[in-house]
Design a protein that fits this description.
- The complex is a heterodimer of chains A (215) and B (266).
- Chain A is α+β, with helices and mostly antiparallel strands and 215 residues long.
- Chain A has a domain of 139 residues.
- In chain A, 18% of the residues lie in helices and 39% in strands.
- In chain A, strands 2, 3, 4, 5, 6, 7, 8 and 9 form an 8-stranded mixed sheet that branches.
- The mean pLDDT of chain A is 89.
- Chain B has 266 residues and is of the alpha+beta class.
- Chain B has one domain.
- Chain B contains 3 helices and 15 strands.
- In chain B, strand 4 and strand 5 form a beta hairpin.
- In chain B, helix 2 packs across helix 3.
- The longest helix of chain B is centred in the C-terminal third of the chain and has 29 residues.
- The chains are: A alpha+beta (215), B alpha+beta (266).
- Chains A and B meet through strand 1, helix 1, strand 9, helix 3 and strand 11 of A and strand 1, helix 1, strand 13, strand 14 and strand 15 of B.
């Protein structure tokens, strides 16, 4: 079967290609993988500030950081049937590690937390997020595709109720983070042609694939 | 598996090649060469357009019936004495009363050497195989297609047309010359005979071959490092990727495709 099938142009990015792109993307914009309160976000190029200024003062000693490792992907078909959230048709699974760092202490005068009489709690675990590709912008030549998170699952947290709460929080954060990832058509075409999208993006054969014509 | 795979079928590849022909533009050369018995200086320019694309494994693009559009500006000198007979107006004497006999001098006609400017534009079609050659040049990735061997350029039909056009040009240039009236047709015919089809193909063939030899079109040209996303805020700088490897081949499945594969890195 030809790559272009009934179209004139095919573009595909493999799992390693997506992994490389995610590394490029999140290395350039690391704050999209880290979200923290003021104590953990002195440099907002590295950590997105979660504004807690409207919270009551008695909570000001509580500081939190949620930080994801640069993710990797497994595009359908799954590499292993035993993996967490194996991807189905037109799906891929994003794997990452999350670190939740919690600073527990009394209220601080400046509201930014502090190290006096505080202790830091680290919680680190692996998670998988089932995703599907979607068109963000279909403008010929300059269009982009994005990532839509379907379901998130993590391991190592009990009881189930707590696990569900953490999953819910992380789903909201990771959904937003992945929504910031846009992959231009130009990456699919190595900037070689201006693509008019006619089919896709679709996850298949360990690739994200698009098909269309030269615009 | 490559990081990125780009495939173009024959239709898309045709578009790439035709775009490459446009980018190639017009190429010019100036020199001189034999034009029958004459030495002509010339300015020649060519461009390429059209042609149908055939994809052949493992790395050949066959281009059929490419238009080689050429414009030729020739200039050469002709000594008309080589082509026309010399003649003299005889002395004439007249007896004039009270004056005596008065005679005119004998006047011999010497034909001039005249410059002949000649411009001609036309096209010829040719077909050739081109090899697909991806390569890194400095910090730019290129996919070139380079002609495999110089094709046989069918010059003869063009040569006949050129000879006809040359005859018209000669008539226009020679007709103002004094006393040439009765000899004009003879002169044109003699010059055309001297040049002949062989003279035209002898000049045009090697000249056009110069343009076709090593002919290379660039169907892909991109910097190794490319910005794929612009800066979108104070904390979101531009995102760039680096193409660390690039290959391009022809694959044949249920249809032939030009397939480029690349690796990317930060």
């Amino acid at each position: 079967m030809s790559l272009t099938q009934n179209h004139h142009v095919f573009g595909g990015i493999s799992e390693t290609g997506i992994d490389h792109f995610l590394r490029v993307f999140f290395t350039a914009r690391p704050h999209l993988l880290a979200y923290g309160t003021a104590f953990y976000a002195p440099n907002q190029n590295l950590v997105t500030l979660v504004d807690t200024s409207s919270l009551p003062a008695f909570l000001s000693g509580l500081q939190c950081l949620i930080e994801f490792r640069i993710p990797t992907v497994d595009i359908t078909p799954p590499n292993s049937t035993t993996e967490l959230l194996p991807p189905g048709p037109d799906q891929f699974t994003v794997f990452t590690e999350v670190l939740i760092r919690f600073l527990c202490g009394p209220p601080s005068r400046d509201g930014k937390g502090g190290r006096g009489n505080t202790h830091e709690i680290d919680l680190k675990f692996e998670l998988a997020a089932l995703c599907t590709p979607l068109v963000v912008d279909s403008t010929p030549g300059s269009g982009t595709i994005g990532i839509s998170l379907i379901q998130l699952e993590l391991t190592g947290i009990a009881p189930p109720g707590l696990e569900q709460i953490v999953e819910c929080i992380l789903t909201a954060v990771l959904r937003w983070a992945l929504a910031q990832v846009v992959i231009p058509f130009n990456v699919f075409t190595l900037h070689g042609v201006s693509l008019t999208l006619q089919q896709g993006p679709v996850a298949a054969d360990d690739e994200i694939e698009v098909r269309g014509d030269i615009s | 598996m490559a990081d990125v795979t780009l495939a173009c079928d024959q239709t898309a590849a045709t578009r790439l090649v035709h775009d490459a022909e446009t980018i190639f533009g017009t190429q010019s050369k100036s020199s001189s060469g034999s034009f029958g018995p004459f030495v002509a200086s010339y300015d020649a320019s060519v461009s390429f357009s059209g042609g149908s694309v055939g994809l052949q494994t493992p790395n050949i693009i066959a281009l059929n019936d490419i238009h080689l559009n050429y414009s030729l500006s020739l200039s050469f000198g002709i000594d008309l004495n080589s082509f026309l007979p010399s003649f003299c107006l005889p002395q004439v004497c007249v007896d004039i009363p009270c004056v005596g006999t008065v005679c005119t001098p004998t006047i011999c006609i010497s034909w001039p050497t005249i410059p002949i400017p000649f411009n001609y534009s036309d096209f010829i079609d040719f077909s050739a195989d081109f090899q697909v050659l991806p390569h890194l040049s400095g910090s730019t990735w290129l996919i070139d297609i380079r002609i495999v061997s110089v094709p046989n350029l069918s010059i003869s039909p063009a040569a006949a047309a050129i000879l006809t056009a040359l005859g018209l040009a000669l008539g226009a240039v020679l007709s103002p010359i004094p006393f040439i009236g009765p000899f004009l047709a003879v002169a044109v015919e003699a010059i055309l005979a001297a040049v002949g089809i062989a003279g035209i193909t002898g000049l045009l063939g090697p000249l056009l071959t110069l343009f076709v030899s090593g002919l290379t079109f660039t169907i892909y040209k991109q910097p190794q490092v490319q910005q794929v996303l612009p800066s979108s805020g104070p904390h979101d700088p531009a995102v760039s990727i680096k193409i660390t490897a690039l290959d391009c081949v022809v694959q044949q499945t249920d249809k032939a495709e030009l397939v480029a594969t690349g690796s990317i890195a930060p």
